[in-house]
TrEMBL record:
Transmembrane segments: 6-22, 42-61
Protein name: DUF5673 domain-containing protein
Keywords, sorted A to Z: Membrane, Transmembrane, Transmembrane helix
Source species of the chain: Sedimentibacter saalensis
Length: 219
């Protein structure tokens, strides 16, 4: 396994760690300005990446055991040698020189699948950590703006908002309202941020939001 590949793996993992640390630093900075802490979210994207991580681990485990059972009698002394890519590459070179093409292709495919599997496991773990943590932060109304799923939006970024509802919850009892903020971006003037607010927080959220963002007609 090359140093460049290891660097990519570490880099992917650091992306997830950086997102968590960066979000936490932002929360600490705005802690004293928090007004209302709303519902936390279970990130669908986080769960999907977690599921993808599990799939890659299962596939990698099957791949390791399959090739280990083929090599354990003559070429490897321990299953831990299967993770020594340099040793496996020496085996590949030896099989090729000895014209043992069946063994050559088995070990070559193993190392190729193993390294690509490591990449996708690192990527899935990084994304899963990021989205699950952001979801756990939830929605926070601050004096300077809104934190939603780890992303902070200043009040001046919103060009208007409107509230609609109430709606009945599908899982739990009670109702909620939708606060829909118009947040134009470079790519879309109709971009919106939607917050689902439980009925008990509706008046408090409306009071804070109306001071900072102009209320518009429901669209």
């Amino acid at each position: 396994m090359t140093n460049e590949f290891l660097f990519i793996i570490v880099f992917l993992l650091l992306i997830g760690v950086k997102e968590i640390v960066w979000t936490q630093i932002g929360r600490i900075k705005r802690k004293d300005s928090e007004i209302i802490v709303l519902n936390k979210k279970l990130s669908i994207w986080g769960l999907l990446y977690l599921l993808l991580l599990i799939v890659w681990i299962v596939l990698a485990t099957k791949n390791v055991l399959k090739v280990y059972n083929l090599l354990k009698y003559d070429y490897v002394d321990s299953i831990f040698q299967m993770f020594n890519i340099q040793y496996m590459e020496k085996l590949i070179e030896g099989f090729y020189k000895n014209n043992d093409y069946v063994w050559y292709f088995q070990t070559y495919n193993y190392t190729s699948n193993f390294t690509s599997g490591l990449f996708w496991m690192a990527f899935s773990l990084s994304m899963s950590m990021t989205f699950l943590y952001r979801g756990s932060v939830g929605t926070i109304i601050c004096e300077e703006g809104i934190t939603d799923s780890g992303n902070f939006y200043k009040w001046e970024k919103f060009k208007g908002y409107y509230c609609c509802g109430p709606y009945k919850k599908t899982v739990r009892e009670g109702t909620y309202y939708k606060f829909i903020f118009n947040r134009p971006t470079f790519f879309s003037k109709d971009n919106t941020l939607v917050l689902n607010v439980n009925s008990e927080y509706k008046e408090a959220v409306e009071k804070t939001v109306s001071i900072n963002v102009q209320k518009t007609e429901e669209q």
